[in-house]
Each structure stands twice: as C-alpha cells, then as structure tokens.
Amino acid sequence: MQYFLKPREFKDSNLNKVFFWQRRIEINFLSLKKIFQYYPVKIHIHVALDGGHSIVPKPNKEDEERFGITYSHWCEDKNEMETILDECGIYIAPRTSEGIGLSFLHALSLGKVIIAYNAPTMNEYIIHNVNGYLIDFENPQPIDFSNIKIVQENARKLAKEGYEKWLKDREKFIDFMEN
Fold first, then answer.
1. Structural domain 14-178, CATH architecture
2. Sign of the CA dihedral 163, 82, 111, 148?
3. pLDDT over 90 at 101, yes or no
4. Which of 3, 50, 88, 93 is 20 to 30 A (C-alpha) from 155?
5. CA distance 48 to 165
6. Residue 47 burial class via C-beta count within 10 angstroms: exposed 0-12, middle 13-18, buried 19 and up
C-alpha cells in the first residue's frame, strides 16, 4: 500500500528550473552538475541541512552564473517555500533513503518531475524515464530529458490516481493496524 498526499491543481512550472533541498552531503551540487550536463537549467538550492551536514562542495562563482543558482534557507512561512517550489518543474529528492518520503511525495502532489536516488522508498513510486528519473548519486550520469513533458504528465497521473487509490485503501490499512 502506498501513501499519497492530496494533489492540488497543477500549475504550469518551468521544466528548466530545479528545486534542490540540500539536506545531506550524499546528494550535492557536483551530482547535479553531472545530471544536468546537457540540459539547460537554473537551480534553486534550499539550504536547510539535516543535523551534522553541510554544503560540500559549494558551487563556485562560475557554476552560480552558469546554472543561475539562487538560494533560500529554512522558511518560517510555508507559503514562501510553496512560492519557490511553484516556479520549479523539477524536484531533486533530498536523501538517498527515506521512510515515507514526505518531501518527494509533497513535490509529486504539486506535479513536479522527481529525480531521486534509486532506492526505497523513491523507487517504489518512481519508474525511471516513465514518471520520474532514478539515478545513482554515487556515480551520477547525465540524464536524457528529451521526454520530460511525458514524464511530467505521467507523474501527475500517478499523483492523482495514487491519491484516489489511497483514499479507497486507507480503511483497509486502519483495519490491518487495529487487528
């Protein structure tokens, strides 16, 4: 059984703009630089690190210019974060492993194209090159984004259909947990 958040009305977002929530060192800017080697993007880095982690390595001035890098930090107001997310069509899942994976499920509910590490929980939702992109952040390779509009359509379909299925199945889940 998969959990889904209620999708909101999908807004047009820029498929050449990336939201990267820098949380840990395993997924970092050098990985993004390789992933987007042949695809022109602007990258927004949201710096809100998990405890004990730092931005390593930091983008240099040349990279900041090439990728039009902008930054934000922890937002006290959720609407501030939503405004930034709304502008971006691509979301980098911030960790190599997740429990439920609320951050990428939230982005999916917003209609974003997800790029995630090929591991649970992400690969239990995302099918590479169909409704998102799965990569190995230990050995990142450039992604072919020639089908990104189709991937986005499929991701949005997954968000809608997954939520509808979750609504139907959640009663079974409650019964299972109670018994």
1. 3-Layer(aba) Sandwich (3.40)
2. negative
3. no
4. 50
5. 32
6. middle
Cβ pair 13, 88 in contact under 8 A: yes
8 A C-beta contact, residue 91 and residue 112: yes
Distance CA 118, CA 115 (A): 9
* 108-118 pLDDT tens trace: 999 999 999 99
Q: Does the CA dihedral 59-66-10-76 come out positive or negative?
A: positive
Check if the beta carbon of residue 35 is closer than 8 Å to that of residue 135: yes
* Cβ 168 vs Cβ 161: under 8 Å: no
Residue boundaries of the structural domains of the chain: 14-178
Average the pLDDT over 167-178 and give the result. Answer: 80
Task: Give the integer Cα–Cα distance in Å for 133 and 150.
Answer: 12
Look at residues 69, 148, 141, 145 and name the one whose alpha carbon lies nearest to residue 111. 148
